[in-house]
Amino acid sequence: MRSVLAAAVCLLLASCGGANRPAELRTFDELRDSEAGTALRARYPKLLAEADQHRERSELAFRDGTATDARHHARLAQYTLWAASAYSRRKDLQLQERALANERRIIEEKISVIRRRERVALEVLERDERLRLIVERSLVVTTDAANVDLRPGVSALLVDLKDALDHDAARLAPTDEIETTEAVVEALTRLGDAQTSLPSRAAALERAAERAKHLVAVVLPRFALERARAAEDERLTALLEAAAAVPGAEARLDGRGLVITLRQLFADGETSVMPEKRPLVDAVAALIRRSPESAVVVDVHTEARKDALAAVTVSASRAAAVLAVLVAAGVSSEKATSNGRGGEEPVDDNGTRVGRTRNRRVEIVVLRTVEKS
Amino acid sequence: MARWVASVASLWTLVAFLPVSTRGAEPRDTPWSAYLLEVTLDARELEARDVAGALALPLRTLHASLRAAELAWARDDLSELERVKAEISAQLRWVEAVVSAEEAAVNLRRMEQQRQQVEQLLEEARTRVKEVD
Known about the structure:
The complex is a heterodimer.
Chain A: H1 2-16, H2 23-32, H3 35-43, H4 45-64, H5 67-143, H6 151-166, H7 168-171, H8 175-244, E1 249-253, E2 257-262, H9 278-289, E3 296-301, H10 308-328, E4 336-342, H11 353-359, E5 361-367
Parallel strand pairs in A: 3-4
Antiparallel strand pairs in A: 1-2, 2-5, 3-5
Helix pairs in contact in A: 2-5, 3-4, 4-5, 5-6, 5-8, 6-8, 9-10
Chain B: H1 2-16, H2 31-49, H3 56-75, H4 78-132
């Protein structure tokens, strides 16, 4: 009974002496009983239970009159509640941060989509530019007169490419078609260029070949012939000078070659070379041997006679005699021939004695090896 | 902020190793002196780093408790020392909660900046794609 009375007195003192009640309890109660306090309890029930426990002890200590313990537990209750409040603030901030992170992720995804769209747009621009170039080059190929054969192929390629581009699904990635078409058009262009240039190249080659043929067939032989003629002229001229220096011999050049004329080698009616004339013939033979490649013809002429046949016979015998002397002097018999010309080729008047003497003559012709032009 | 958390962690470590009773021990040989010194130093470090002032109240309260602990220590009042110890423990948890909330606030500000940056990038990307289109 006494204890009950003491408790009642304590309660009465506590209710009347509010100034002694720990101030921390008042602030604790205000926070705990607020809307925020309710939220804290829902979020951190253990902490709030701990705080409530401290508050209860504080209340009990206050009722027991132990102010120190009352304040002590009131402080613990307050510190616990404030810690819960700080944890709750941390939780709110973390939730906000998480929400912001979500927003950032969504924005980044939007950026990714936009960048992808930008990249695709740029690819389309680039591809359209390439396509424009393809069409331009294709037009060049197809409009070139030399590329008539290529027109159907290029046109078909362009139609295929247009189909690929018109198709929505393929529009974003027709790279393969474009690259293939580019490669084909490139090849066709080169082929067109080759076709265009080939005829002119062939004509040029043909002209060059014609020039070469003409050079080989006409010009070069002509040059060679002229060079050979010049060389022969030089050689015959040297022989002419040498022959002119031989006493009793006359020499000249004509179309046949070097003509050395000898006279009075035979006595009247004879067909053998007079012995005293043999040195003259030998000297001529020595000249002939200086041109071993040349053929030699011995033509013997008489004055005109009534009996032409007899004249030919005599002249032929005399020509053979001269030829024999020449051969005996070293002239090749294979290259030497003799002719009896009779009196048909006079060089002077047969009506006079001087003329008849001039017409009786031996002409030793060193023939040209190269025909005179 | 990481150093704040480290400081708070060291405080908690000290609290965990507090002796239940120091009766009969020479004051300067007990862990109490080292404990009070460490808590005081860490509290000062936290105070120096608390630019925003969020820790002002908890730290002021903590300093008061530390002074009370010194007085109780001087009086060799172990029961008071035990009470103060319990209060310091509660205050340290409060400090830790505030520090972690401040850390969350810093993270939130950083995230807000990042969101603004990506928003700006989004605007730039939209402008570019309009130009390309």
